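We treat protein structure as text, and this decision shapes the records that our systems exchange. The remainder of this section carries one protein's record, kept here as part of the documentation:
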Amino acid sequence: MATKFELSELIRTGHFIDGQWVASANGKRFDVTNPATGEVIATIADGGEADARAATDAAARAFPAWRDALPKERAAVLHRWHALMLENADALGHLISLEQGKPFAEGRGEVLYGASYVAWFADEATRIYGDLIPQQQRGKRMSAVKEPIGIVAAITPWNFPLAMIARKIAPALAAGCTVVGKPAEDTPLTALALVMLAHEAGVPPGVLNLIAASRESAVPAVAAWLHDSRVRKITFTGSTPVGKYLARESADTLKKLSLELGGNAPFIVFDDADLEAAVSGLLVSKFRNGGQTCVCPNRVYVQSSVYERFGDMLARRVAALKVAPATDPDAQIGPMINARAVEKIARHVDDAVSKGARVLAGGKRLTALGPNYYAPTVLADATGAMQLSCEETFGPVVPLFRFDDETQAIQAANDTPFGLAAYFYSQNVRRIDRVARQLEAGIVGINEGALASEAAPFGGVKESGYGREGSKYGLDDYLSIKYLCQGGLE
């Protein structure tokens, strides 16, 4: 039976290196705060270059034995880890709410979502197949086998502090790789708790190593991995500028990279759409985690003939959303992650209003609740001249753009350097086929706002990155293909 822990037992304040909880080599520490109140939750080790190197040393020592473990043995460890995550879903959900701010229901939902990747890749560990290549010459046998790529460095964001690192660690371990990781400085406690459970599940020392680092210490810590030839892969979720930096800095050692980067997702509502369904789908896709997700719709295009009606329907639903701290059981939207996030949201809304946007709902800070709250907002009459048309707002703001015909909508939707997610609503089967083919995005929601699944490939095109997470394709980025040619068989 899986062990159940109290929330206080899950809070760890050191790095996890070679199976041990350790302090930083330089003794530095930093505070982790609650975004709802600004209060300090914990003061934890602040990792630097020496800690990153120690993590890599441990991963290098552990790699041969973990690589050679039977797939079913690695799968068994992952299944035990999955069971521990489910057993501790409530405590982990509360921890996510505490350091990230999302309501408890969303925090617990994230635990289940992250756990689904662990279960999925536990099963996929036993399905890493190679190929016997049809004979080309007499006396020769040719085959292709897949092998773990080596040490993987996983760098994750603050918006999904459990799910993002789980869906990187799980395929890496399933493939036979060892891992060094760094969670975001705003939300390291959840990742450290997750690693604690992995250790309880039997992940051997050195196979999984995690260091926490403040904003100031993160650059030298990550640089130690970027320049170390033993680290063969970087997997990163975060902003496009940081993704480009990682690609440049890892070029000298030609690491394999998986980059899930920024988005600027369009959401198109055609005049033949089921408007009630479109409003509901937009609420699901936009206001999850308070709009702080990379697949949130950032630009909502509504056909002219239904524009006003859709705006009114949406504004009524958005105005009814409950904004409150995660401790409120009725909360639907919590605080933004920090003051910088709120400043960006306010700047985008103010810029839009100054350029002619109409506020249909929200449009203001909610200072009575705390320092980092912003009202869910709907803006009508958005245009391409506004900052929110080309910058990812990453907050609970829905700008409504007007369009006249299908060609115009597709051109506007694709008029961005990004291509992570896109959504559209239509009941015309011919239009559905046309639009789905023409949208430049790695993920397309058709009459659906909730896209995430461990069985589906997640990733983007253009400047939203490359590589895929989840699905049967999710192991590929952690494996290399070796061609074997055996001669002298006749």
In short: The chain has 14 helices and 22 strands.
